[in-house]
């Protein structure tokens, strides 16, 4: 066995991340052992796949693998022979050590398919699109079954596809200033032919091998390049020489490109414009091929060596789907398992792959075991309903019925289903409930026509006058014979007319109309007929001059109150009580008084009138004054008017000595006294009527001129009382109505009972008539020998009639049997309906097939329509049968009418024979015949009622059957409509899915566009992130110093808010963002910032302080900005909306002097009074000035 040992310190390998070394590594070609070979192209070898039957093992230790910097997860090492034959490969990404099998040549074949013994083995590293030549620390010579250990630096050299050796000599970036330069303008046209990939790309300019300028070119469309000239002050050539040609190179990442342009001669301080380039040739480095480098991607690019993030993988992106692909970034088809049958109970509208989980409802029921069609909501499906009578007390009760059908009952409550008495103890055909005990002798006084059983109580008839008020009353008589004599007024126009009187006794009285209520105010004792004119008594004072006069009173209750006046008038106004306060009243209204008459103002004191102001009338004066003195409140005695007192006015006619009541009309003030007030009286009412003047009160009287405050009771109160009375009246009416209904019910019950009694009596009369006729026939055989024959014929006819009636009963039984058959037919129809429902359910279970085969669906629908036609034909047949029943009923009615005619004819003939046979008994026979006729009428009525009941029951039965048929037909049609609707809904659903597919395709295109946009935005975001990182330190400092911003919503109106910052801030600057929404802000010391007026006494906002903020409009998410040192200067200003108001001159401000009077009200000349006198100046506006001369 052959071993090769390589020590770890064999070669000192520097990291490829070291830039100087990287330049060299980029151009090193694949090497064998210590020798380096150059290739014109870098051909990526493929991994080895095969088995030649013999191999050797190469151990790649951790020391060897650690020198490799791997980028691609699929990186691998290949082994090859000098002839270039691949003889082994092994993945190495992420491994710390591994073994590589090197396969030898299979000598059993003529082809060389492996390494020959002793052949030199070369190692290469394939890392994505990059190929490195590895220098084995220990030479590897192939030996079958041998082993080689590589335990130190593998010295990877990058293979370049360029003709250069890969040791790129980067020109570098020019730095310096030689004192002179020229400007090289690189235009947009120049850059349009240039592709730049690396962000640090730049163009370098050189002249004679000297770097003379450089400029960055990534991401720009035009620029200027400074070309520096040689500094002639030095001996070294450090710039371009005048006239020398300038060459340009592009350094783009690790690749250098030579740029060919027109000649660029250097000219100091000159300018040269480069508008285009001839060619761009890569002179050194590795060409970067961008693309998707992930093999799992749909757009995997095997030629790419740098991933550009464009990889896409189409797949299901819904995590809820069964085929969800977490790596997918392009939406593809998703698979959802579930029930896809839309008729199933667990149908999943999202599922597109049926998993066999569908389950279906039972026939006639939905998925919750609830009836699909249950018209009456009784829990029993219509298809399983049983029509029949559900009333246990009915004669045809069906305990299996689920839907109420026709029920038959006895015609009367006292009869059973066989129309026989339930209780009949004496078997007389009269039910015990209607048996009546009493006198059954028609000639007796107490004969009871309703009695069916004689109780021996008959009393003989005693004729006579039975009227107790008659003069010839007979106490023994029990039957009045019309012989009574009754005295009384027989004049029907008289007030006391007696309709029973037949002898006029002269007592008639004439009618007198009037109020007959002795409690009324207008009671008429002579009236005997009330005419509804009575008036309710209203007690009160009816004297209009009294203090408590009541205009509504119609009966004086002697309650009138008066203020006493002794008629003593003061002769001089100066003789009144001068109390220290007064009011001045100017009198402009005229009165029919003479010079020297008095006008006085009075107040009430201890029930007497006292003069508090006096005017001696002057007929020549146009305006006169009266001073009214107020009460001196410093004394206990009332010696004048108290504030608010009403002034009572009177005049005194000196010529007649008469006192006249007055009431003034004021043009200024009112009739209530006020201290130091001034009044003007413009008119007077003489002897006015006092009382209530408000129409809203019951005390109102139209004759009243002056309201004295006596209004007390509103008409609305009377209305409320009237409403209460009406409610009571309505309640009584309701009570009487209820009583009347109860009486009516009792009456109806009594009528029914009497009708039953009458029926029994008729039957009894018929029996008695038969017995009487038989008795008469036996007793009068000698008179009419052929009577027995006639009776026998009558009996025969009666038997024939009974037989015919029995036939009718048989026919009725047949009708009942037909009805039973009809019910059986209905049951059969129900069974047919159930079968139809089963068929419908089957149709529903095949909806999926119907959807794929519309022709079959139409065939089923046609079959259903055919069944529907047959069903309708059955309905028509039933209706015809019902019509036949109605026709039979009509025939029955005609037959019964015919029999009634025969009965009437027999009775008429029978009665005629009885009258002919026995004239002596004519009256009795006539009565009996009348009773018999009445009985026949009653029987006819009873029979007619029975017929009507039968017709009504028949109509009800027909209506019930028609309703059931209509319900079944409607249900059947509903089922068809449901099937059609389901088919339509499915078509709409398919159409919707097709639209969804189109929408998804459009979304896919939009998604691709969005990805491209996002990639573009990503580059812009990187620039933004760089800017944000630049501000990071300042922001961190602010966040460390201040608390996190607090956002508050300020509502319209007043708000309370705290200032959370740690430093004082200018109020105006902090709130400037609110703009016109802010009304004002103030603190608890009432200092305010009011922007509308440019006023800021608040100054700054202080940490920890609270403020009241008033907003014109709401402002959401407000936070106090951190603006240390910023100020917003404001100055007080008048708002633009302020206007100077013009104050108009009021007419009252223009006044003129009317009169000057002294304190006695006398008109004086101010120039003629004494010094110290008090004068009152009266002006045209009603004002008064009090001036001391």
Secondary structure class reads alpha/beta
Shape: flat
Number of helices: 10
**Poorly predicted runs:** 1-41, 161-166, 1039-1043
Number of strands: 57
Percent range for β-strand residues:
15-25%
* Residue-averaged pLDDT: 77
Instruction: Tell me about the largest β-sheet.
Output: 7 strands, mixed
Radius of gyration from the CA trace? Answer: 67 Å
Please estimate the helix content.
25-40%
Strand arrangement across the biggest beta sheet: 39-38-41-42-43-37-40
Instruction: Calculate the terminal CA-CA distance, rounded to whole Å.
Output: 157 Å
Task: Characterise the protein shown here.
With about 1200 residues, the protein is α/β, with parallel strands linked by helices. Helices cover about 30% and strands about 20% of the residues. The protein has ten helices and 57 strands. Strand 15 and strand 16 (about 255-260) form a beta hairpin. Helix 4 runs antiparallel to helix 8 (about 920-1030).
């Amino acid at each position: 066995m052959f071993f090769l040992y390589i020590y770890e310190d064999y070669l000192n390998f520097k990291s490829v991340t070291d830039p100087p070394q990287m330049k060299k590594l980029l151009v090193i070609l694949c090497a064998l052992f210590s020798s380096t070979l150059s290739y014109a192209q870098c051909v990526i070898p493929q991994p080895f796949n095969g088995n030649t039957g013999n191999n050797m093992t190469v151990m790649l230790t951790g020391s060897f693998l650690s020198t490799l910097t791997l980028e691609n997860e699929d990186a691998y090492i290949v082994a090859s022979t000098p002839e270039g034959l691949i003889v082994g490969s092994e993945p190495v990404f992420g491994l710390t050590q591994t073994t590589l099998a090197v396969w030898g040549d299979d000598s059993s074949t003529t082809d060389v398919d492996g390494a020959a013994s002793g052949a030199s083995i070369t190692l290469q590293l394939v890392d994505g699109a990059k190929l490195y030549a590895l220098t084995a620390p220990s030479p590897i010579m192939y030996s079958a079954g041998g082993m080689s250990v590589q335990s130190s630096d593998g010295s990877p050299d990058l293979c370049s596809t360029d003709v250069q050796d890969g040791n790129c000599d980067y020109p570098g970036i020019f730095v310096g200033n030689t004192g002179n330069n020229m400007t090289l303008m690189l235009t947009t046209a120049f850059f349009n032919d240039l592709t730049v990939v690396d962000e640090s790309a730049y163009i370098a300019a050189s002249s004679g091998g000297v770097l003379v300028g450089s400029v960055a070119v990534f991401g720009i469309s035009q620029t200027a390049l400074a070309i520096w000239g040689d500094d002639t002050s030095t001996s070294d050539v450090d710039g371009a020489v005048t006239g020398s040609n300038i060459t340009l190179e592009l350094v783009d990442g690790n690749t250098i490109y030579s740029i060919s342009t027109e000649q660029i001669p250097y000219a100091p301080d000159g300018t040269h414009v480069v508008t285009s380039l001839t060619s761009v040739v890569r002179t050194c480095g590795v060409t970067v091929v961008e693309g998707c480098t992930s093999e799992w991607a749909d757009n995997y690019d095997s030629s790419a060596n740098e991933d550009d993030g464009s990889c896409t993988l189409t797949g299901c992106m819904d995590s809820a789907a069964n085929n969800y692909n977490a790596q997918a970034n392009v939406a593809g088809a998703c698979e959802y398992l579930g029930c896809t049958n839309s008729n199933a109970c667990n149908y999943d509208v999202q599922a597109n792959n049926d998993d066999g989980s569908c389950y279906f409802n039972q026939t006639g029921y939905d998925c919750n075991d609830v009836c699909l069609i249950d018209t009456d909501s009784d829990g029993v499906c219509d298809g399983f309903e049983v029509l029949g009578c559900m009333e246990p007390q009915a004669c045809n009760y069906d305990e299996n019925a689920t839907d109420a059908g026709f029920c038959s009952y006895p015609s009367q409550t006292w009869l059973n289903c066989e129309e026989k008495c339930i209780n009949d103890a004496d078997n007389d055909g009269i039910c015990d409930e209607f048996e009546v005990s009493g006198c059954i002798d028609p000639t007796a006084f107490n004969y009871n026509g309703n009695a069916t059983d004689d109780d021996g109580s008959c009393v003989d008839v005693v004729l006579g006058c039975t009227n107790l008020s008659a003069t010839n009353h007979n106490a023994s008589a029990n039957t009045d014979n019309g012989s009574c004599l009754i005295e009384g007024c027989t004049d029907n126009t008289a007030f006391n007319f007696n309709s029973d009187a037949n002898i006029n006794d002269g007592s008639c009285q004439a009618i007198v109309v009037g109020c007959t209520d002795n409690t009324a105010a207008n009671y008429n004792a002579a009236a005997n007929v009330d005419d509804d004119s009575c008036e309710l008594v209203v007690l009160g004072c009816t004297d209009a001059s009294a203090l408590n006069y009541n205009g509504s009173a119609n009966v004086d209750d002697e309650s009138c109150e008066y203020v006493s006046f002794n008629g003593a008038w003061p002769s001089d106004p100066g003789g009144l009580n001068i109390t220290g306060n007064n009011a001045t009243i100017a009198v402009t209204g005229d009165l029919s008084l003479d010079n020297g008459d008095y006008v006085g103002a009075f107040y009430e004191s201890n029930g007497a009138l006292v003069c508090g102001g006096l005017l001696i009338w002057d007929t020549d004066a146009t305006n006169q004054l009266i001073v009214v003195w107020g009460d001196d409140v410093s004394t206990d005695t009332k010696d004048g008017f108290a504030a608010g007192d009403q002034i009572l006015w009177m005049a005194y006619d000196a010529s007649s000595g008469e006192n006249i009541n007055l009431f003034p009309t004021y043009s200024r003030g009112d009739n209530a006294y006020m201290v130091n007030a001034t009044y003007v009286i413009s008119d007077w009412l003489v002897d006015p009527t006092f009382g209530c003047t408000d129409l809203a009160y019951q005390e109102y009287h139209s004759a009243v001129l002056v309201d004295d405050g006596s209004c007390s009771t509103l008409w609305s109160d009377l209305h409320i009382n009237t409403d209460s009375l009406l409610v009571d009246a309505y309640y009584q009416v309701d009570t009487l109505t209820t009583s009347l209904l109860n009486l009516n019910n009792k009456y109806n019950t009594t009528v029914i009972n009497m009708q039953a009694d009458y029926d029994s009596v008729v039957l009894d009369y018929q029996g008695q008539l038969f017995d009487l006729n038989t008795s008469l026939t036996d007793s009068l055989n000698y008179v009419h020998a052929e009577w027995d024959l006639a009776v026998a014929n009558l009996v025969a006819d009666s038997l024939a009639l009974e037989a015919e009636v029995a036939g009718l009963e048989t026919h009725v039984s047949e009708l009942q049997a037909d009805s039973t058959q009809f019910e059986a037919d209905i049951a059969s129809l129900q069974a047919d309906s159930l079968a139809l429902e089963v068929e419908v359910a089957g149709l529903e279970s095949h909806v999926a097939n119907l959807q794929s085969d519309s022709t079959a669906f139409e065939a089923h629908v046609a079959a259903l329509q055919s069944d529907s036609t047959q069903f309708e034909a059955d309905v028509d047949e039933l209706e015809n049968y019902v019509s036949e029943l109605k026709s039979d009923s009509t025939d029955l009615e005609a037959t019964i009418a015919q029999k009634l005619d025969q009965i009437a004819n027999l009775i008429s003939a029978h009665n005629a024979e009885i009258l002919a046979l026995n004239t002596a008994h004519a009256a009795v026979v006539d009565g009996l015949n009348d009773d018999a006729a009445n009985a026949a009428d009653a029987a006819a009525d009873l029979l007619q009622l029975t017929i009507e009941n039968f017709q009504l029951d028949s109509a009800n039965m027909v209506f019930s059957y028609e309703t059931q048929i209509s319900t079944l037909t409607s249900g059947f049609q509903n089922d068809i409509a449901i099937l059609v609707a389901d088919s339509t809904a499915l078509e709409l659903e398919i159409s919707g899915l097709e639209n969804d597919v189109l929408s998804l395709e459009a979304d896919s295109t939009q998604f691709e566009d969005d990805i491209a946009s996002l990639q573009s935005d990503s580059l812009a975001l990187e620039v933004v992130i760089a800017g944000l990182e630049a501000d990071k330190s300042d922001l961190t400092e602010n966040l460390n110093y201040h608390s996190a911003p607090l956002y508050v919503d300020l509502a319209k109106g007043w708000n309370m808010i705290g200032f959370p910052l740690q430093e004082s801030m200018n109020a105006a600057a902090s709130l400037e963002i609110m703009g016109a929404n802010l009304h004002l802000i103030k603190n608890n010391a009432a200092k305010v910032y009011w922007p509308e007026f440019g006023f800021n006494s608040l100054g700054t906002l202080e940490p920890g302080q609270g403020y009241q903020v008033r907003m014109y409009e709401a402002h959401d998410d407000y936070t106090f900005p951190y603006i240390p040192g910023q100020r917003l200067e404001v100055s007080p200003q008048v708002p633009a909306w302020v206007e100077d108001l013009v104050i108009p001159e009021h007419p009252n401000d223009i006044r003129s002097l009317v009169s000057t009077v002294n304190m006695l009200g006398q008109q004086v000349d101010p120039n003629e009074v004494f010094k110290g006198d008090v004068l009152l100046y009266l002006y045209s506006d009603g004002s008064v000035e009090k001036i001391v001369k």
